[in-house]
Amino acid sequence: KKMQQWKGVKKLLYNVVSIILLICFCSGFVLIVFWSTVYFVAKEKKELLAQNNTTVGQVIRYFQHDRVEVEYYVDNVRYTEVDHHVSFDVSIGEYFNVAYDSYNPSDAEVRFDQPVFVDTTDTKIVMGTVISSEEVGFIGDKGVTIEYPFRNKTIENFRKIPNEWELKPGDKVFVQYKNSNPNICIIKLEE
User: Fold this and answer.
1) Could you report the per-residue pLDDT of 129-145, keeping only the tens digit for each?
2) Burial class, 136, CB count within 10 angstroms (exposed 0-12 / middle 13-18 / buried 19+)
């Protein structure tokens, strides 16, 4: 009778260990696929940016779950790029540089760290303050929360910045914003 109980315990232990090993194997596989995808996306982005083909795109739609659609033109042909997981403040009507593949302009990267104004007549430059700084996304992009004055109140805005910028809380920056929509702004290190 003790022998049968021991066989039952051994079988149970064997099943538990098998399940644990299966879970570890599956989790490891998922992690390998995930980080491989992140690596290849980052590599593709770097190669695309190295081509130096850029145009200006405009945010035309904001979806739920932090997705935006940007419209841009190359040789008078309209293209759109839907960018997923935009975790910083973006407004419809805002313009950004767009890097694209010269052989396939529909393959593009919206440079959210490079906002532009196509018309500066409706803008104002003020001094702003960095409130916080953090990494954005999986590939080490940077973002900062800034605050700046607008008509007797303070605007707070979270923006993506170039990776080479080293901004920390308390740093002063110049902020150029649109008078008609102060949430559309560009952070500048120099006026």
Assistant:
1) 999 998 876 567 889 99
2) buried
DSSP 9-63: HHHHHHHHHHHHHHHHHHHHHHHHHHHHHHHHHHHHHHHHHHT--EEEEEEEEEE
Q: Cβ–Cβ contacts within 10 Å for residue 119, how many? A: 8
CA distances, 79 to each of 62, 73, 106, 108, 181 (Å): 16, 6, 6, 9, 26
3 state DSSP class of 65: coil
Quick one: DSSP state of residue 4? H
Q: What are phi and psi of 169, to 5 degrees?
A: -55, 135
Rounded to whole angstroms, the Cα distance separating 122 from 54 reads 24
What is the spatial distance between Cα 103 and Cα 74, in angstroms, rounded to a whole number? 11
152 sits in the region (left: phi over 0; alpha: psi -120 to 50; else beta) called: left
pLDDT at 90: 85
Strand partners, 84: none
CA torsion, ordered 144, 168, 110, 34, to nearest 10 deg: -90
Q: What pTM value is reported for the model?
A: 0.70
Using DSSP bridges, classify how beta strands 77-83 and 67-74 pair: parallel, antiparallel or unpaired.
antiparallel
